[in-house]
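call fold target=Aldo/keto reductase
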Amino acid sequence: MESIYDCFKLNNDMKIPCVGFGTYKAAEGNNVEVLKTAIEVGYRYFDTASFYQTEDFLGQAIRESNLPREDFFLVSKMWKDEMGYQQTKDALEKSLKRLGTDYLDIYLIHWPRPSADCENWKELDLETWRAMEELQKEGKIRGLGLSNFLPHHIKNILENGTVKPVVNQLELHPGYMQQAAVQYCKEHGIQMQAWSPIGRRRILEDGLILELAGKYQVSPAQLCLRFLLQNDIIPLPKSSSMERMKQNMDLFHFEISEEDVSRLATMPQAGWSGEHPDPELAQKNVV
């Protein structure tokens, strides 16, 4: 990889850029201008969701860029209350309208379970997936994917669906690499993507992160993003600052050594958001 425009190849032969721009809380209060800035500095892969409430702003930013739709790689997700067969079809139509496009490059199920007490989540996921498969046949979605799915959630889709997920998004960063889930996806040809790729504030102030950032003469954020790329994981950084946007693109002039990759991969848990795909587990673990 030599730039953010270089691509990974997905299991359906689609190509996906190796770095995306996350839009969750990326521009609270000034959404359009920040997204227009992201396009100006060079981002073309944008990750959004109905829950983020940024689809309208992203659509406007793309229109005002005067660039063709085909220049962009757009990914969105349906929220927990939009799951189900007909609900999914309705949710996609709303997302397409907000974005001002007639297709998505990838559409994701945002979370595998809508709530901790949802006992029929497997059936709900499959109803949702069936609708997505039909929407793909209609040309409204190029690829189907998952977000926050762990191996036992993914297994349900793999065993009962007819289309394999092309991607899965998880919270991934040094200090929280979810090795079992990442390995499972790699074994099944599912491309991993990282939300919250630089973790929380504690990560950027961690002693090891600061040491290695100094060694490679990069920012702590750049170190985290490069670490993910070297693990074949697509990072989805977000920023409202043009300087940091550019910095988050500048990941290809250095390479982390094998020894330092190992140190980052085995550092103590840090920076976890407290969110978990099985909600009752998060409730037990968050104090």
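return ok
Residues 7-285 form a domain with the TIM Barrel fold (CATH 3.20.20.100). The chain has a mean pLDDT of 95.
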